[in-house]
Specification:
By secondary structure, the protein is α+β, with helices and mostly antiparallel strands. The chain contains 2 helices and 6 strands; from the N terminus they run αβββαβββ. The longest helix is centred in the middle third of the chain and has 17 residues, at about 55-70. The radius of gyration is 15 Å and the shape is globular.
């Protein structure tokens, strides 16, 4: 499975120097990396179709529309980074895979008890 270089991602999403190396943080139904202050998600070509339509792009189109509604409603979330030459919405195709980028958000444990 193709893994892009940090430079390919930086160029595709106009991230400047990109912030260093791709650090792999997750593998499941997709790969995820950290690239400096960015979260990079790489989809496997065979993923998708289980929620809407016949394939990955159908599923991602629905997901991006939902995310846009959340952003428009003011939901506090990391905004996607628009690629220079989009394949679809916030996606770019590099080799045989689709990729998207968001700003990286550090996890912080909450101090308030929310169990009630």
């Amino acid at each position: 499975m193709y893994t892009p270089t940090p430079q390919e991602i930086a160029l595709a999403f106009d991230l400047g120097s990109g912030g260093g190396e791709l650090v792999h943080v997750r593998r499941g139904d997709n790969d995820a990396w950290r690239l400096g202050g960015y979260f990079v998600k790489g989809y496997f070509p065979a993923t998708g179709g289980q929620f809407n339509g016949d394939g990955l792009t159908d599923q991602l189109a629905v997901a991006m529309a939902f995310e846009q509604l959340a952003l428009d409603a003011g939901v506090d979330m990391p905004e996607p980074v628009m690629p220079v030459d989009p394949f679809l919405g916030w996606l770019v195709q590099i080799e045989d895979r689709l990729f998207r980028v968001h700003r990286w958000v550090e996890h912080h444990s909450g101090s308030a008890d929310v169990s009630a």
